[in-house]
Known about the structure:
Blueprint: H1 3-14, E1 19-22, H2 39-49, E2 60-63, H3 65-77, H4 79-88, H5 103-110, H6 113-121, H7 136-143, H8 146-154, H9 169-175, H10 179-187, H11 213-222
Antiparallel strand pairs: 1-2
Helix pairs in contact: 3-4, 5-6, 5-7, 6-8, 7-8, 7-9, 8-10, 9-10, 10-11
Amino acid sequence: MPTSLLAIATKALEENYFFQVPDTEASTFEEPGARKRHAGICAGAVRATGRPTAMCASNMVNLPKELVGEFIDAVVQDRDRAKSLLSAHPQLIDARWIHNEAVVHFLAVEGFTDAVEFLAECGADVNAVNEFGDSPLIDVAVLGNAAAAQVLLRHGANPNANSVTRNNPLDCAVRSGNVAIVRLLLESGADGRYVTDLGQSVFDALPPSATGREGIVALLAHYGITPNAG
C-alpha cells in the first residue's frame, strides 16, 4: 500500500475511529454499542452550515474499523478479496472513513483511479458528500486529478454539485487552472454561467497566472460562455 494511504489508515485505527453506514440491515452488524451515533460530528456540521448534512442521516450503524480498513486495502490491492468482503458485508460499499467521506471518495482523493472505478461499478454513490459537504468530484477538481474526475463523471457524478464550503466542481477546476478537468466538466453538462452566493461568475475564478488561464477562457468561449454573454 502506498505510504499516504497506509499512514492515513494507520492513524485512523490508532485513534480508534468507527465508521458508519446506513442502517438498512442493522442485524448484520448488531453488537453492544453498535448504534451509537457521532452526535458531536453531526452537531459540528450543523453549527458550521446551519443545516444537517448527509452524514447526519438517521439510522446509522457502526462497522468495525478493522473491517473497513481491510476493505480499503483489498480494493486497492486485491479485488477478489474486496468482492468477497462485499459479498459477506454489503454495507461496506457505503462505509465512511476519517472525514465521514465514503470509501470511494477517500480513494478518489488519494488518486486510486482503478479502485474508484471498481467501487463505482459495485454501486458506490459517487455523489455522497463528506462532513464538509464536498462531493468526490469537487475534491478531485480542487486537486487537479483529471483521471479520477473522468471516472466519477462516467459513473454519474453531478458536474453541478454544490458544496457547503466550496463552490461547484467547475469553479474549483477553474481556480486550480486545470484545463483538462474544465473540459471534462463542460462536456458533461457543467453550467458555466453559474453565479455564486457572493455574486461571482466563472471569470472571477480564473487563475491570475497565464498558465491554464488562456486555455480555460478559450474552452469557455467554445461553449458560448464569455464575460459579456447573458
